[in-house]
Amino acid sequence: QAAKISVDLIVPYLESANSSMEGLSLTHACYPNPFNDMTEIQYVLPESGKVKVVVYNHFGQEVQVLTDANQSAGAHSLKLKNTELGNAGQYFYRIVLEGSQKTWQVRGSVIYVK
After folding, report:
1. 4: which residues sit within 8 A by CB, 6+ positions away?
2. pLDDT in tens, 30-55
3. Which residue, of 19, 43, 49, 108, has the greatest Cβ tally within 10 A?
């Protein structure tokens, strides 16, 4: 009669740097939009890192840097006032997060009406 031998195989779980970021994203919203006096750009960072939020006019020229600093993961918001802009019209913003594992980038637009 043969003896039964039980062997448990233990395989360590390996996670690549990219797989831990799957399903995460840099989300953003702007309210109110269009705006008259002030609007608020809200964003959620999937990880900590250096964040730069820049506003551009319709020619692609940089109009205002709202932030250029290290921020923690989670929800943040910035106010954009009409006094920081030139004329009424459409403006674009770009949020760039230089995280430890990747660089995130999103774009949005706001409309300033007088």
Report:
1. none
2. 999 999 999 999 999 999 999 999 99
3. 43
- Name the least confident of 36-40, 52-56, 83-87, 95-99: 83-87
- Distance of alpha carbon 87 from alpha carbon 83, whole angstroms: 9
HEC per residue, the chain: CCCCCCCCCCCCCCCCCCHHHCCCCCEEEEECCCECCEEEEEEEECCCEEEEEEEECCCCCEEEEEEEEEECCEEEEEEEEHHHCCCCEEEEEEEEEEECCCEEEEEEEEEECC
Tokens of residue 11, six digits: 């395989």
Q: Model-level pTM greater than 0.85? A: no
